[in-house]
Amino acid sequence: MFPLRDHNPSQSTPYVTYTLIVVNMVIFASYWPLFADDAALSGFLGNWALIPAQVADGQGLHTLLTSIFLHGGLLHLGGNMLFLWIFGDNMEDELSHAGFLLFYLICGVAAGFGQLLTDPFSGVPTVGASGAIAGVMGGYLLLFPRARVDILFIFVIIFKVIPIPAWVMLGLWFVLQLFNGVVNDTSAGGVAYWAHASGFIIGFLYVVPIWLRKGGQAFWHQTQGKPPHPHTEYKLQYSRIPKIRKRR
User: Fold this and answer.
1) How does pLDDT run across 79-116, given as a tens digit for each residue?
2) Cβ(14)–Cβ(89) under 8 Å?
3) Which CATH superfamily is domain 2-223 in?
4) pTM > 0.70
5) I need a labelling partner for 238 at 20 to 30 A (CA). Which of 72, 84, 181, 209 fits?
6) 148: β partners
């Protein structure tokens, strides 16, 4: 399952979300040539990526922030930016532009701490906006649990776009992070599942006061867990090219 879009249009232009996407892309492009030189890439990551063992030793504290803007490849970058594009605009609506930026950075740093606490002796560089974006997803789950999210379902040769409630997609994603964090050993490298889970939890808790100000469960009853505005309907666009029938 891979999310493609939600049916929850933003009510204002999400300038911060767009800016974060551009900044991540520009930063990645700036060190993209280093991927052809292992030594240079290792030196770069040693300075700017989160290395838990170093931070636990009191060094490189700045990497808790800088690592949020680094990615390990095009697919890593693309997947994270897609998730940010889908869920970021609505959270920016709720938190304001400046408030959303602060929220994003706090979730990202908290995710780094989560990874640090679960694997404090790891010397493997940790990079990615995943933890910050997981926080965005956690807040989205609390405010819009029944917003419709279109997912691309792939099974062998079957490709199908299916709309499902946000709580199903986000809840399953979170459970998978916990499960993989328990059963996988990431000390030798891999996905930072505990950073994802930590960011998600912090994002959820951060938004609880906002949810309560809106009425808490009364807000859910009023909106039925859906966005408090008309949702977007996507329609298939039919080709204007005329059909040509084959002669028998």
Assistant:
1) 999 999 999 999 999 999 999 999 999 999 999 999 99
2) yes
3) Rhomboid-like (1.20.1540.10)
4) yes
5) 84
6) 165
